[in-house]
Amino acid sequence: MGWWGPSIWEAGWSTLDALLAEVTDADLGRPLRIRGEPHTLALALARSLAHTAYHVGQLVQLARHFAHAHDVPWRTLTVPRGGSEAHDRARGFDPQRPGPDSP
């Protein structure tokens, strides 16, 4: 795989895990600046998560495109279209009988 392989991927996640393991509840309100704009650590983490999710969506869209272009069947990454009810029921959730935390 050259310079970009599983070891680089794992090193990146390990670094993130190590940093997050040191964060305390008190740290979440700590002020910091990103591109000169004030943020709390909590806001910075939320923005980073949203940004990462956006790029994951881009990668999935490209993967779907290339799968279709090469006649490779696409396997849904989560619950297939139209399968939410069966998925929920298989996990013990009945939408007709909301749980105790429902409004």
Q: Can you walk me through this structure?
A:
The protein has a domain at 12-73. 50% of the residues lie in helices and 8% in strands. The protein is built from three helices and two strands; from the N terminus they run αββαα. The longest helix is centred in the middle third of the chain and has 29 residues, at 41-69. It is extended and about 45 Å long. The model has no long low-confidence stretch (mean pLDDT 89).
How many strands, which pairing sense, and closed or not: the largest β-sheet? 2 strands, antiparallel
The level of helicity is 40-55%
Backbone shape: extended
| Alpha carbon gyration radius | 20 Å
Number of helices: 3
Number of strands: 2
